[in-house]
Amino acid sequence: MLASTEPASLDTLPLAVGIGLRAPHHAQVLAERPAVAWWEVHSENFFSTGGAAIGFLQQLRQAYPLSLHGVGLSLGAVDTLFDAHLEKLATLAQRIEPAAISEHLCWSSFGARHFNDLLPLPYTEEALRHVVDRIGRVQDRLRRQILIENVSSYLQFADSTMPEWDFLVAVAQQSGCGILLDINNIYVSACNHGFSAKTYIDAIPPERVGEMHLAGFETCEDFLIDTHGQPVHAPVWTLYEYALERFGPRPTLIEWDADIPSLAELQGEAAQAERRLQAAGARQREVDDALAA
Predict the structure, then answer these.
(1) Which of 5, 203, 240, 244 is most open to solvent, judged by the fewest CB atoms within 10 Å of its CB?
(2) Which DSSP symbol is given to 194?
(3) Secondary structure (DSSP) of 118-151
């Protein structure tokens, strides 16, 4: 039985920092109910119709706001896996009734096979129409808006006709979805491809941003790899502060997927983000009060 202070609402993500919950910490969370504002889990880990995993998630949902974050819907792919995957996601969403559902703007399957990667799209009108149609089908089936996340990339397509940020904005505007803005992914891709991370952030309409992600990267020769296996780096913290100034406070998540540390260390990372988020909120209130005076 979980036992700590009940959040004000389990149906929406709070303007606070959550943590990506992974299997090594499941038992500890059930036993201790730590002071974490909200949790995110990977949807595909809970597609079973019964068993310990789904039982754990149902207990978690009774105590915390919960986000389902997908890594396998493969919105940009053209194959036969999409419908079956969407049905499993819809079944899980009906059982859990999460505060948010998100997916990646990428493709990760071909010929009825899934890849263990989130691959970038060509930023073309054809790809835009395809992804908008797929997201529309997802939102119709789930009967709710979803958030779409930008991915890190290590190559660019010669056929692209627009920058990534314009493509992401067009996807959101044409499909009606929200944006999960991964600050680490923006920084990694900006370094790898030589564009300005601030230009990317400046192009995103604030009203579309429903959530932000923070994670760590690794340096490999002359490029960066989005490993989610280290603490958030200093330039990503700086970029997060810039994003908070543009968008205002948004639900923010600490992701850590490789070499997973103790829950206490993850809470320390979340605390660093929370201080920045609260400071941005205080500045926003000062501006609002001054305009109202």
Answers:
(1) 5
(2) T
(3) EEPPP-SHHHHHHHHHHHHHHHHHHTS--EEE--
**Rounded to two decimals, what is the model's pTM?**
0.94
Please name the residue that has the structure tokens 């850590």: 256
> Could you tell me where the DSSP H helices lie in 143-214?
164-175, 183-193, 197-202
User: Could you give the residue ranges of the DSSP H alpha helices within 34-74?
Assistant: 52-63
β strands within 168-285, DSSP E: 178-182, 209-214, 218-220, 223-225, 252-254
Per cent of the chain over pLDDT 90 is: 85
DSSP element (H, E) containing 101:
strand 100-104
SS3 state at 95: helix
Rounded to whole angstroms, the Cα distance separating 142 from 138 reads: 6
Structure tokens at 93: 């969403």
Using pLDDT thresholds of 50, 70 and 90, give the confidence band for residue 108: confident
The answer to whether 163 touches 202, Cβ cutoff 8 Å, is no
Domains detected in the chain: 17-292 (3.20.20.150)
Say which residue, 286 or 243, is predicted with more confidence: 243
Q: Is 75 helix (H, G, I), strand (E, B) or coil?
A: coil
Q: What angle do CA 269, 272, 275 make, to 5 degrees?
A: 150
